[in-house]
């Protein structure tokens, strides 16, 4: 019985404890609920009830519309002023940090710059400031000669007048692409700076504490200049129509700006100078190039029709450079028609039979198509029938008039990657050697001696896109050439545009290792062919550019005037009798020639003698011009 009573007692105690705990919990929850309701009531009264009460008080005191609007305007002005002060304070802090970085900071004072700007931001600011200081933008720099000066290009919103003519050789053009983006960014930056400055000046001069409502826009831009310094960055000088901030400052502004040459307030201008500084050179990537025995195999595709003599010259150079030197090239000749086919086959057979030439059945192949010549189709056939049935190969699309070096083949490998980049070298095109060397009074040298890069021997063929290195997968992905084009020109530009519009990177660069040999160009089309208007114009343009330089063509055009002038000089009374006696004391070379003793033309006594001997050439005129420039 005692045990049973103890158990009953313990269970009763447990029940009491549980009830107490539950009561405490309920009480605490009720207290929380009451407190929450109280807080909500207070918030409701503070937001709604008091506002209504304040509104009633205001209504009883008088009209409130003007007072509330004035209060809102004052708050808005205060907020704008506060934001402007914060911005200026941040700029001042940044400038102080830059000064401390440049000077090392005052002795005995420690500044924790990491709390305000990180080291990378400070480094970027300092680098940009150094570029601005080094540039010839705020003051002139002493240069060695006139060739070191970089000229500005003039521009407006819709027109650009470039100093360096681009691909189109246009003296005036519409800004497009990256040029348009660059100039637009500079213009928007200038407008933003002008608006900020107008707001600050208007706020200071108004006396009422209101911000200026004058806003500049792109329509206020008049004109500008820009140039690119390769080591510092792009410089801009832009001119805007000056806007008067308010009536009180209109006269002051017009008087201050009239010094630029304006006659009155309506002709005042504001000049703003900007610079896009180049950042320090950054590391982007490191790529290991292949060794000689691991070089990528290049498949050269050569469309051909006739011209077997030129093809013989091409094969001679290909054996020396491709088969004996590089040794990692294959050649596929796609021949159109039957005329000359046997000669082409014989030329390739002789290479195969020549001992030590390096030619085998594995690296030389001739494909014959009994069709009208189409360069686009020839390149497609050669690309589809690559050697060994490999999945992807590197192609070099070539012409029979091309001469290339072993280093060019390396650049062909370096600048291509499947799905990533293709190589379009700018070929150096040689002028007509009969014009170039005849004007110099020299015999036409062998072809190998003509491969010289100078302004008298040729030009960069920046309008030609026929020579290209690319992988077969990329060529097939963009669907190759337009095979509907028959005859001369047009198909290479179409393929180039496809790559430009794709996501593949196009490497377009001058290449000193590839030459286009001059040959007579016929723009009448082949038998049964008729060129379109665009093809004919492109052919005539190419023919004119290939013939000779501007100066050389000028000598040809005015050769009769030059000859008559030489005859007149020779038949005129001798000037040697009237020459001052002091000339007799000079050395013989300086007595008869205006050129220095080391000149190759110093042997001639006079200009008329040079004309008589046929040696009045472009080079002589250039030496005269250089002497005249030095004298000046």
TrEMBL record:
Residues in coiled coil: 71-98
Taxonomy, superkingdom: Eukaryota
Subcellular location: Golgi apparatus, Golgi stack membrane
GO molecular function: glucuronosyl-N-acetylgalactosaminyl-proteoglycan 4-beta-N-acetylgalactosaminyltransferase activity
Keyword annotations of the record: Coiled coil, Golgi apparatus, Membrane, Signal-anchor, Transferase, Transmembrane, Transmembrane helix
InterPro entries given in the database record: Chond_GalNAc (IPR008428), CS_glycosyltransferase (IPR051227), Nucleotide-diphossugar_trans (IPR029044)
Enzyme class name: transferase
Matches recorded under PANTHER family: CHONDROITIN SYNTHASE (PTHR12369), HEXOSYLTRANSFERASE (PTHR12369:SF45)
Family to which this protein belongs: Belongs to the chondroitin N-acetylgalactosaminyltransferase family.
Name of the protein described by the UniProt record: Hexosyltransferase
